[in-house]
Write a structure and sequence with these properties.
The chain is α/β, with parallel strands linked by helices. It folds into two domains: about 170 residues, Quinone Oxidoreductase, Chain A, domain 1 (Alpha-Beta Complex), CATH 3.90.180.10; about 130 residues, NAD(P)-binding Rossmann-like Domain (Rossmann fold). Helix content is about 30%, strand content about 30%. The protein is built from ten helices and 19 strands. Strands 3, 6, 7, 10, 11, 18 and 19 form a seven-stranded mixed beta sheet that branches. Helix 3 crosses helix 4, helix 3 crosses helix 9 and helix 6 packs parallel to helix 7.
Length: about 350
């Protein structure tokens, strides 16, 4: 089968690799219809690693996808041949202490699509996944929307972890797909006092679709001062979605005493710093968000019903054969790209 394979730093090519086969009675063979390019894919493309997860070449990345069921193991009851599905990228064991305590996203034996040492990714024609990672979608729901359920589920999980109330004020730092997913999830929870920062002008224009109370560019203005004009006491929550030291610093300044800093972005550096003085005096709570935890089905339902509409985030569409161009555009933030999708 055809697959987009990383062969070195900033090297990706189309290759023929053996197709996967069903090995377990609860496995499902999926024909990938569409896949999304995530920031983590770009991390692997540019640096060959995310923290301790290091690529061994050749390797197929990609974890945001929608597919058609081609074949099922004999014990599969959740989906059937021909079903159109959104795919949950994480395969958990359901047996460890983390899974049994409702923390499947930190499963001790977690295997994730397109993650080194775990599972080969979805930038290919076929994958095999357990049936509990497959969520059937209606025929009138597009594969595009199904793909967007993966990043959107992270936003839903982050908002759930924050435990917002309708009176909460929030700032979202970084208006990429994850940042805007947090915005959409917060709005779905009744939040209307939210502020967004973003450096890329095309993304700022797209983020205006969410009707923020204020949105600004840190390259052009002091975003901390601007947000404090609206919220003199500081905001209740900051969703840090850029993975940058400067946005982490801004978050600590923007938060009110007792506020919560939701760390969602993935920094490229091994360590980040925090002002011990500020986080102590303000008694800031730090909450790390690890992917998502059992929100894929809820996300599918919300998108399918029209309650959340992530469509505006999709700015580019390509064929698998265009993979080199796709990765160059996304890694360089070129051409106003926000979310690029690949039709397989």
């Amino acid at each position: 089968m055809k697959a987009a394979v990383l062969t070195g730093l900033k090297k990706i090519e189309i290759a023929d690799i053996p197709p996967p086969i069903i090995q377990n009675d609860t496995d499902v063979l999926l024909k990938i219809e569409m896949a999304g390019v995530c920031g983590s894919d770009i991390h692997y493309y540019e640096t060959g690693r995310i923290g301790s997860q290091v690529i061994k070449y050749p390797f197929v990345v990609g974890h945001e996808c929608a597919a058609t069921v081609m074949r099922t193991g004999k014990n599969v009851i959740r989906v059937k041949t021909g079903d159109r599905v959104a795919v949950e990228a994480a395969v958990c064991c359901h047996q460890c202490d983390q899974c049994k305590s409702g923390r499947e996203n930190t499963c001790r034996n977690l295997k994730f699509l397109g993650c080194p040492g775990q599972l080969s990714g979805c930038f290919c024609e076929y994958i095999v996944m357990p049936e509990d990672c497959c969520f059937a979608i209606d025929n009138d729901m597009s594969f595009e929307k199904a793909v967007m359920c993966e990043p959107l589920a992270i936003g839903l999980y982050a908002v759930q972890r924050a435990n917002l109330t309708t009176n909460s004020s929030i700032a979202v730092l970084g208006a990429g797909p994850i940042g805007l997913s947090c915005v959409l999830a917060a709005k779905n929870n009744g939040i209307n006092r939210f502020y967004i920062t973003e450096k890329i002008e095309e993304r700022i224009k797209l983020a205006q679709n969410t009707s923020p109370a204020w949105i600004g560019n840190p390259l052009e203005q002091n975003v901390v001062q601007e947000i404090i004009k609206f919220e003199p006491n500081g905001v209740d929550f900051v969703f840090e979605c850029a993975g940058q030291q400067e946005t982490i610093d801004q978050a600590v300044e923007i938060l009110k005493p007792g506020g919560k800093l939701m760390l969602i972005g993935i920094p490229r550096q091994a360590c980040i710093t925090l002002s011990a003085d500020l986080i102590r005096r303000k008694e800031i709570t730090l909450i790390n968000v690890r992917r998502q935890n059992n929100f894929t089905k809820k996300c599918v339902d919300l998108v399918q019903s029209g309650q959340i509409k992530p469509d505006f985030m999709v700015t580019h569409r390509f064929k698998l054969e265009d993979i080199k161009e796709v990765f160059e555009i996304v890694s360089g933030y070129c051409d106003g790209v926000l979310k690029a999708l690949i039709e397989i």
